Amino acid sequence: MRHWSEEDPWADDDPGRLIRPYTVTGGRTRSARADIDLIALISTVRPPTRAQRLQPEQHRLLALCRRPTALVEVAACLDLPVSVVRILLGDLLDTALVSVSAPPAAGTPDARFLQAVIDGIRRL
Question: Is 106 exposed, middle or buried (0-12, 13-18, 19+ CB in 10 A)?
Answer without folding.
Answer: exposed
